[in-house]
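Troubleshooting: if your tokenizer reports a length mismatch, compare against these two reference records.
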Amino acid sequence: MTRGKLRITWVKSGIGYSKRHKGTIRALGLRRLGETVEQADVPEIRGMLYKVNHLVQVEEIPAES
């Protein structure tokens, strides 16, 4: 089973949020506001996105067959 990827864009500042939220943003590979990264669509990444869904925008990139 091949999974696609997720395109994650950091759209809202972490100022005023907990250190855990800021740490999760860093763990996703995001360094600057407005930056976009691609990550594998795995449960671990989905869990991190669930915690910071108010700070990021997520697009699904389908797997190539």
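Reference record two:
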Amino acid sequence: MAEGVRKRGKTWSYYFDTAKINGERNKVEKGGFRTQKEALDARAAAIAEYNNTGRRFSPQEISVSDYLDYWLENAIKKNIDHGYSYNTYRDYESKIRLHLEHGIYRLSSFQYAPDKVQEWVDSMKLKGFSKSMIKNTLTCLQGAMNYAILPLKYIQSNPCIPVSVGKMPVDVDAKAHAEYVCPKEEFERILARFPESNYFHLSLVVPYHIGTRIGETFAIDLNEDVDFKTHEIHIRHQLTKIEKTWFFKPPKYDSYRTVKMGITLERILKNHIRQRKINQMKYGQHYLKTYVLPDNSITQARADLNVACKEIMPLCVKDNGELVTPESFKYCARVIHYELGNVLFHSHCLRHTHGTILAENSVNPKTVMERLGHKDIKTTLQTYTFNTDVMQQSAVDVFEKAIQA
């Protein structure tokens, strides 16, 4: 391989030969370096990258820390909206930065160190982390190591496979919070605090009636996603915040779906659309309209301004059209916690309540899965067939009827 550096005018450049293509020699050359040393250092780095098939590191020498950065950037970040969401990327980034403690090891030797991974898991237990946090962090590391096996072929075995989280004391409060089902009377009490005239009302009744995730709820466009002729709502997006901007992103697991709605929800939606139009006339040029830009970001502008982008009618806005988001919903939850005294309430519980009501009334699990947009039927069965009081009583009634027949 011919290689070297040379001075051209006031700056230095480096060059080296690459593999021949169609029998012709190819050369890489780059200039603009102030000194000969800078050119030599840059040439060495470029040759190393070339010899490692475009990588800026040697797979045999890379540390676990540098590999995880590489995995996060190339396997996750570059596939946002193509299998991974921005929130998943940020979650993995946080776990790697805050909890993974194996950065000093070489990746090539770390593959033979399940004992070190087990020690780390046990240390997280001693620090008081929840079982779900430990399992999710271990899953993150395991996924990164799987990627190092295939397609990268940097290592041959995954050190996370034999590792076990083991038994942990059940956090009763956390379990009650996660599994909370909002009783009908309690939901009515919440709606009394946030009546139809309140801009949070739809963010409560929609997930209760159709089981949407919070990001999906706030991404519903009343213009295009609600079809009163077919009595359907189309779930096409979730509203996600990136830095300081809100974007329309694909729903979780790409769970695009169409769900039927009942007459109660239809009536509420029609009333809100009617009131929205009244508010637009009331505020006139000062009303804030909402638009989707070509990059799927969301922006707002006064009604008297011309915006050459698609206008939408968001599910939740204030009287003057100001956008209400999942971030805004935190205020609604705080009111329910502290003013109404319901500390178990959280945004996801309304989706959970919808699924539980369906399960308690013997709706086919496949129908529940498709309605909620679960990734697979296993999630539905694990989440919505636990023993509620209604299900327990139903089992007793079925048994009594059987033995008395």
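Descriptive notes for reference record two:
- DSSP finds 16 helices and eleven strands in the chain.
- The longest strand covers residues 11-21.
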